[in-house]
From TrEMBL, chain A:
The keyword tRNA processing applies. FAD binds at G14, A15, G16, H17, A18, G19. SUPFAM superfamilies: FAD/NAD(P)-binding domain. Gene3D superfamilies: FAD/NAD(P)-binding domain, GidA associated domain, C-terminal subdomain, tRNA uridine 5-carboxymethylaminomethyl modification enzyme MnmG/GidA. This is tRNA uridine 5-carboxymethylaminomethyl modification enzyme MnmG. It holds the Pfam family GIDA_C_1st. The keyword DNA repair does not apply. It comes from Paenibacillus oryzae. Residues 544-615 form the tRNA uridine 5-carboxymethylaminomethyl modification enzyme C-terminal subdomain domain. Its cofactor is FAD. InterPro entries: FAD/NAD-bd_sf, GIDA_C_N, MnmG, MnmG-rel, MnmG-rel_CS, MnmG_C, MnmG_C_subdom, MnmG_C_subdom_sf. Homodimer. Heterotetramer of two MnmE and two MnmG subunits. It is found in: Cytoplasm.
UniProtKB/TrEMBL annotation, chain B:
One of its GO terms (cellular component) is cytosol. Belongs to the TRAFAC class TrmE-Era-EngA-EngB-Septin-like GTPase superfamily. TrmE GTPase family. Keywords: Cytoplasm, GTP-binding, Hydrolase, Magnesium, Metal-binding, Nucleotide-binding, Potassium, tRNA processing. The gene is mnmE. This is tRNA modification GTPase MnmE.
Length: 630, 459
């Protein structure tokens, strides 16, 4: 029986990593928000690896935090291991990665959501969109509850027509045997959205007591852990190690002997899987000459004996999976607790979205996360917060917020998705960013916290602290620049640092530019009059040391921004633009880029097309201006 | 990128005529000043003045060309930006050398087709009425440049560049995988390895650049096909034009069984002459291959010299050729005019109303002046623009090769000063992108493809 169950300003469908950030952002911006989930026990659930962060992904978590999102704070309080990766490389690619207690992570997120004002968390399966005059104004659940709102955010992850595949076994299911969402797909299609079929997978889980850890290598966390949130200063969490082992010749033999039973190769799987995350059978076929593959054993939480077997994602039949596991050193007598599987699901072709993540065909309908063709908790959460912000801003009649490619990995990801689309589940990589040196782990707050404050997601208190940090970093850099030093004062320190002695006087800043000289070295002879945190010192050192390269990238960004600032009017009719190649016309008409910058990134749009578009726009503007002045 | 500086040869190159190299943008004056030896520095010169001097290679000190340089400061210039025009004498090699030097200056790149006019429009120097003309110009020039680029992309140069890019991208993918999969058991990238790979690539680049500087540019002259029925005098014409006995001349029809290429300069215009096997129906297998090749050469030619025999009536093969050549850039040469005339000239003029007709006797080398005049007329009237574009696109290649090389040198230098690999990667990536611009490839996603095909990654 259909009945009116409530009126809200924003409805978020799905309470995974995208949905949680969406709903929290919207509610914190003052919108009455409803967060619907098929199963309340699955809020912020991690269906695959129990970890958050790593290169590019960790950067996104920092960015979410800088904007005022939740993921960083949540993992900082629920991790069981923290590691900074890439420390031997440049500061831009230092990347934090946490192993999560996946249960605690869920519980804490659920608690935060429950305690957030303006936010209602409810169990229910959305099955139908209510669209009136091209606007999405609500949804109807399986139980007949009709919820009304001014904007709807769909974050269905892998639930849309989800299908689990395990060897010969196949059945309709969401992740981890949850109920799939079957009818919503049809409703999306009915309202004009085009869907594609993607696939992903997860490895088996095993019992800790059946692992012989003596045959594996220990992978401990960092002694002095760093944190994702700019708010977290300390932690007394006790860390738990992970373990490393390898596949053996026998592993490869079992897989090869059973390839005829692998749905990957039998044609049973129709969805496109991610390139970066192939299953073990895929790896062994494609890289046949590689004698062994790494396998990491990762605890799923503090109060469970389940271990995640990273590197062994597979959709082989259950009996083969057990066989495979037992060929791995340390796992000879292992007990499998959950079977690995592949899952197929519907996703929205992301070029149907504006950069705000609102769909072009239905006003007020936003999508975020895996439904947009991405994969990964961090990618989902990064889109989630943007969709939530923009849904709320839509309700409040404010202009959409778009993060630029030079401002954050979130911007790179969304621009890639809506401008180029994706042929397989999209994962962020640092190599996707052209301004990697500017998009660092350490400066996420400098890049995005002012925006978060403006939006209303950063508190006064936090903003004040941020401004103080910024000012102190500038003061300290200026101090080093204006401090003249003599060789006799510095040479002992330089020798310690393994750097060449000074011959004549200079300023302290240029000493810090030397690769061997750290801020700590300099501080030992030139202590700062300011009270600086480790974070601030790091910031000073990085900006000074890489100034040359950073400036080069800033120059490129300045050029890019000129193109980004050339807006394309929304009412442009590309069929009217004389001289455009027909391929360009068609692509431009589908993507409807907001700026010349975005237009130039569309595949199939040539520099000549861009030139022609520029000339057309100039023409257009002059005509419009002439009309206006009459 | 509207505010960088562009340069190009803005008039066709011809002997006796003057070639103008135009530079426009914020770095135009500084850039030109750096290679211009004169009594006055352009930086201090007033706008709208002309200066005498020499274009000099700042590295070797060699005087390249005696020139007049015109200076126009923005906004009072054609493009609305600072503009420098270098008037050179027009010898192909010298003008090209001047442009090369200009493009080696900081911040100056080769102009895209129609770009000067585009800037003029965007800076409000051209009125609305002309906007459509600008669009047509960009479209037609780009399409032609694209055709030219595609022709070259099938050639040897592109194969070499692809191989070079392959070396660089493997290096890039290796660096990227170290960064994005730090815990993966992939060999760590070392400075020594990066240096080794960069040096390998630079050695290859040097080889390419050396051939470019040896004046091989002439290879890219106007593709000119000499066609006609067997024994009408094609090889003899070729020999006359090249003053060499390269083609075998006999009076047996079907002697030329392959396409012979020669490079000549006529009134300063570079021509790439193709002597084609006589086009006719034949049962001889070897000759038939030659005929096929001739037809191919014909398809790709910018200019066609069609030979007809003054002494014979039009043959069915002649008529077929005439039909095929409709709409192409053709000069009709009526050979053997020392013999009695039996050719139906009216019919020829009827089929090809716009083609110039030149009477000559190749054997007696008479009428040659008229042929040369016809070729240069066509050239200067703009009918043979394609060759000019081929030429420019080569200068573009050279400047991109140079850019790739200097990026790789930066990368090598960085490895010596303890710069981390992800920062060195920036330079290596620039080199890869510059090489990609030559091929017109999309740089974007293929690095990611490379990472996943080169390394076994996963969770």
């Amino acid at each position: 029986m259909r009945y009116l169950a409530g009126e809200y300003e924003v409805i978020v469908i799905g309470a995974g990593h995208a949905g949680c950030e969406s709903a929290l952002a919207s509610a914190r911006m003052g919108c009455e928000t409803l967060l619907l989930t098929i199963n309340l026990d699955m809020v912020a659930f991690m269906p695959c690896n129990p970890s958050i962060g790593g290169p590019a992904k960790g950067h996104v978590v920092r960015e979410i935090d800088a904007l005022g999102g939740e993921m960083g704070r949540n993992i900082d309080r629920t991790f069981i291991q923290m590691r900074m990766l890439n420390t031997g490389k440049g500061p831009a690619v230092h990347a934090l990665r946490a192993q999560a207690d996946k249960f605690e992570y869920q519980h804490l997120m659920k608690k935060t959501i429950e305690e957030t004002p303006h936010l209602t968390l409810r169990q229910g399966m959305a099955e139908e969109l209510i669209v009136e005059d091209g606007k999405c104004v609500g949804i109807v659940t399986k139980s007949g509850a009709e919820y009304r709102a001014k904007a709807v955010v769909v974050t269905t992850g892998t639930y849309l027509r989800g299908k689990i595949i395990m060897g010969e076994l196949m059945y309709e299911s969401g992740p981890n045997n949850q109920q799939p969402s079957i009818k919503l797909s049809a409703s999306l299609k009915e309202h004009g959205l085009e869907l594609i079929r993607f696939k992903t997978g997860t490895p088996p889980r095993v019992h800790k007591d059946s692992i012989d850890f003596s045959k594996t290598e220990i992978q401990p966390g960092d002694e002095k852990p760093k944190f994702f949130s700019h708010e977290t200063k300390t932690s007394d969490i006790e860390q738990i190690p992970c373990w490393l082992t390898y596949t053996s010749e026998d592993t490869h033999k079992i897989i090869n002997d059973n390839l005829h039973r692998a749905p990957m190769f039998s044609g049973a799987i129709e969805g496109t899987g991610p390139r970066y995350c192939p299953s073990i059978e895929d790896k062994i076929v494609r890289f046949a000459d590689k004698p062994k593959h790494q396998i990491f054993l990762e605890p799923e939480g503090r109060h469970t004996s389940e271990y995640y077997v990273q590197g062994l994602s597979t959709s082989m039949p259950e009996d083969v999976q057990l066989g495979i596991l037992r060929t791995i050193p340390g796992l000879e007598k292992v007990e499998m607790m959950r079977t690995g599987y592949a899952i197929e699901y519907d996703a929205v072709i992301p070029t149907q979205l504006w950069p705000s993540l609102e769909t072009k065909v239905i006003d007020g309908l936003f999508t975020a996360g895996q439904i947009n063709g991405t994969s990964g908790y961090e990618e989902a959460a990064g889109q989630g917060i943007i969709a939530g912000i923009n849904a709320a801003r839509k309700v409040q009649n404010k202009e959409a917020v778009i993060i630029g490619r030079s401002q954050g990995y979130i911007g790179v990801m969304i621009d890639d998705l809506v401008t180029k689309g994706t042929n397989d589940p999209y994962r962020l990589l640092t190599s996707r960013a052209e301004y990697r040196l500017l998009l660092r782990h350490d400066n996420a707050d400098l890049r995005l916290t002012p925006l978060g404050y403006e939006i209303g997601l950063i508190t006064e208190e936090r903003y004040k602290q941020f401004m103080m940090k910024k000012e102190l970093v500038e003061l300290e850099t200026e101090r080093l620049r204006s401090t003249k030093v003599k060789p006799e004062e510095m040479n002992a320190m330089l020798e310690m640092a393994g750097s060449a002695p000074m011959v004549q006087g200079g300023d302290a800043l240029s000493l810090l530019r030397r690769p061997e000289v750290t801020y700590q070295h300099l501080e030992s002879v030139l202590p700062s009059p300011y009270e600086l945190s480790e974070e601030m010192k790091e910031q000073v050192e990085i900006t000074v040391k890489y100034a040359g390269y950073i400036e080069k990238q800033l120059l490129q960004v300045e050029r890019l921004n000129k193109m980004e600032k050339k807006r394309i009017p929304s009412d442009i009719d590309y069929s009217d633009v004389r001289g455009l190649a027909s391929e360009a016309k068609q692509k431009l008409d589908v993507i409807r880029p907001l700026s010349i910058g975005q237009a130039s990134r569309i595949a199939g749009v040539t520099p000549a097309d861009i030139s022609i578009l520029l000339v057309y726009l100039e023409h257009y503007n002059r005509v419009t201006a002439a009309r206006g002045s009459q | 990128m509207i505010h960088d500086t562009i340069a190009a040869i803005s008039t066709a190159v011809g002997e006796g005529g003057i070639a103008i190299i135009r530079i426009s943008g914020p770095d135009a004056i500084i850039g030109a000043d750096h290679i211009f030896a004169s009594k006055i520095s352009l930086k201090d010169a007033e706008s709208h003045t002309v200066h005498y001097g020499h274009i000099t290679d700042p590295v070797s000190g060699e005087k390249v060309e005696e020139v007049l340089v015109t200076l126009m400061r923005g906004p009072r210039s054609f493009t609305g930006e600072d503009v420098v025009e270098i008037n050179a004498h027009g010898g192909v090699i010298a003008v090209r050398k001047v442009l090369d030097l200009v493009l080696q200056q900081d911040g100056i790149r080769i102009a895209e087709p129609g770009e000067f006019t585009k800037r003029a429009f965007l800076n409000g120097r051209i009125d609305l009425m002309q906007a459509e003309a600008v669009i047509d110009l960009i479209r037609s020039k780009s399409d032609r440049a694209f055709t030219v680029a595609r022709k070259q992309a099938e050639g040897l140069l592109s194969r070499k560049i692809k191989a070079l890019r392959g070396t660089v991208i493997e290096l890039l993918a290796h660096i990227e995988v170290n960064i994005d999969y730090p815990e993966h058991d992939v060999e760590e990238m070392t400075s020594a390895y990066i240096r080794e790979q960069c040096l390998l690539a630079i050695a290859e680049l040097d080889k390419l650049l050396k051939t470019a500087s040896e004046g091989k540019i002439l290879r890219e002259g106007i593709m000119t096909a000499i066609v006609g029925r067997p024994n009408v005098g094609k090889s003899s014409l070729m020999n006359v034009l090249t003053q060499e006995e390269k083609a075998i001349v006999t009076d047996i029809p079907g002697t030329t069984r392959d396409v012979i290429e020669q490079f000549v300069t006529i009134n300063g215009i570079p021509l790439r002459l193709l002597d084609t096997a006589g086009i006719r129906e034949t049962s001889d297998v070897v000759e038939r291959i030659g005929v096929e090749r001739s037809r191919d050469a014909l398809q790709g030619a910018d200019l066609i010299l069609l030979l007809l025999n003054h002494n014979e009536p039009l043959h069915a093969d002649d008529r077929e050729l005439l039909q095929q050549l409709e709409g192409r850039q053709v000069i009709v040469i009526v050979n053997k005019n020392d013999l009695p005339g039996r050719l139906e000239l009216d019919e020829v003029a009827g089929i090809m109303p716009t083609a110039p007709i030149v009477h000559m006797s190749v054997l007696q080398e008479s009428g040659l002046d008229q042929l040369e005049k016809s070729i240069s007329d066509l050239f200067f009237e703009g009918g043979l623009e394609a060759a000019d574009l081929t030429y420019v696109s080569n200068v573009r290649h050279i400047s991109l090769l140079n850019r790739a090389k200097s990026s790789l040198e930066d990368a090598i230098e960085a490895t010596y000063s303890g710069i981390p690999i992800d920062v060195i990667q920036i330079d290596a990536r620039l080199a890869w992108e510059s090489l990609g611009e030559i091929l017109g490839d999309e740089a974007g996603d293929s690095l990611i493809d490379q990472i996943f095909s080169q390394f076994c990654l996963g969770k």
